[in-house]
């Protein structure tokens, strides 16, 4: 049984099978997004320890790590030892029947196992094969291991984050991994479209470093056109004023007056029309030049009311504004606003489990709660089921289970 936030006959990737040979974050995030689009994702895991993130706690929900739960909904788990010849043969068979193969082995490992692109393409020329790496095949050294925090440092992301008078700061979420997962999912979908037209699969290569570098957007381009390293601006914006957080009577507020008209509206709501007419602040370039003086004036005005009250007044006036919220507060506020940020799945051990939804929606999904979504699988929960689908006999499966080459969780 499969399921996803938009599963069913009309799901964009209904009927697509994904062999997920990845672990940790970038690869599993990509394959979870494919599952969210309706694909049948089989997650291949080590039979004893499973995905690394299964042990990345606290926090825990029961005995399940929150880290693992965040990245693996919509999948089925095949727990198999790739060092066992028959176990490896089963995974090769899975890849031979898959539409998509995603792997993030250390460079050279997939080829050694006979699971590299050339090996899979020889048996399955229509397969879309996605390799996820830390630094990419052309990097010196290509075998260099890459974790998100390392790539945040190497890519410049970290150097642009933090206050001007502090050192570089790690971004609070693993952004390099997330960007890589999004790039991988998008590229796989594009390759599937091409395959539908031509019958050809292909090799998609995605790296954390290139994903992070592409995510620098205007900051990266500014560095290229000026030849100067960007400075850290903390919660402010280097080229737009006011575009930052401000303290209020009871909390922090983000104000984003991105053009002169919005700035004038802001001044009107603050009861300070004089700030709009002050020649130091009339145009954005003027405001950037006199940033410190203007920020002091706005800060003093905002101290008169609380963040929620200012947010309502400024929103009514059309000024982009938001309260700085904690994570749980943000989720609950979005839910109360009708954004449906979470979904609930029936976990076989934990019961009802709330998960964060994907960032996209399909408007033609239809009314009602939608189809059942598979919860993040227990280790080896679907091993026997998947092996049966691959054509292994009951005797072959029993032999694999008996010698520990495959693990089947008691819950099926």
Automatic annotation (TrEMBL):
The keyword Transferase applies. It comes from the Bacteria. Keywords: Transferase. The keyword Transferase applies. Gene3D superfamilies: Crotonobetainyl-coa:carnitine coa-transferase, domain 1 (3.40.50.10540), formyl-coa transferase, domain 3 (3.30.1540.10). One of its GO terms (molecular function) is CoA-transferase activity. PANTHER family: SUCCINATE--HYDROXYMETHYLGLUTARATE COA-TRANSFERASE. This is Formyl-CoA transferase. It comes from Thermobifida cellulosilytica TB100.
């Amino acid at each position: 049984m499969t399921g996803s936030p938009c599963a069913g006959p009309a799901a964009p990737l209904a009927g697509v099978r994904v062999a997920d040979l990845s672990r940790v974050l970038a690869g599993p995030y990509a394959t979870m997004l494919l599952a969210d689009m309706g694909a049948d994702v089989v997650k291949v895991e080590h039979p004893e320890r499973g995905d690394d993130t299964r042990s990345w706690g606290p926090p825990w929900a029961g005995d399940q790590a929150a880290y693992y739960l965040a990245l693996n909904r919509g999948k089925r788990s095949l727990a198999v030892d790739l060092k066992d010849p028959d176990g490896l043969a089963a995974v090769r068979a899975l890849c031979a029947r898959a539409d998509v193969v995603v792997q993030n082995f250390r460079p050279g490992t997939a080829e050694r196992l006979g699971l590299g692109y050339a090996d899979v393409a020889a048996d399955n020329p229509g397969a879309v094969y996605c390799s996820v790496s830390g630094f990419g095949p052309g990097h010196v050294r290509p075998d260099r291991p890459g974790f998100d925090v390392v790539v945040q440092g190497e890519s410049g992301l970290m150097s642009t984050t933090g206050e001007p008078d502090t050192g570089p700061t790690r971004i609070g979420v693993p952004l390099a991994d997330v960007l890589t997962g999004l790039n991988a999912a998008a590229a796989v979908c594009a390759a599937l479209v091409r395959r539908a037209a031509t019958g050809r699969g292909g090799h998609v290569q995605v790296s954390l470093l290139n994903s992070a570098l592409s995510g620098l957007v205007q900051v990266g381009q500014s560095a290229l056109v000026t030849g100067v390293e960007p400075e850290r601006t903390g919660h402010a914006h280097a080229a737009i004023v006011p575009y930052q957080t401000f303290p209020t009577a009871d909390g922090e507020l983000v104000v984003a007056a991105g053009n002169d008209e919005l700035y004038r509206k802001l001044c009107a709501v603050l009861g300070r029309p004089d700030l709009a007419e002050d020649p130091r602040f009339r145009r954005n370039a003027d405001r950037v030049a006199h940033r410190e003086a203007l920020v002091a004036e706005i800060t003093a005005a905002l101290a008169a009311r609380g963040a929620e009250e200012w947010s309502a007044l400024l929103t009514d006036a059309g000024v982009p504004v938001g309260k700085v919220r904690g994570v749980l507060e943000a989720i609950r506020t979005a839910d109360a606003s009708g954004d449906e940020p979470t979904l609930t799945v029936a976990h076989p051990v934990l019961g009802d489990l709330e998960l964060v939804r994907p960032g996209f929606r399909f408007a033609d999904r239809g009314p009602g709660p939608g189809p059942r979504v598979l919860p993040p699988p227990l280790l080896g929960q679907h091993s026997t089921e998947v092996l049966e689908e691959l054509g292994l006999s009951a005797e072959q499966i029993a032999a694999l289970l008996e010698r520990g080459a495959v693990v089947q969780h008691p819950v099926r």
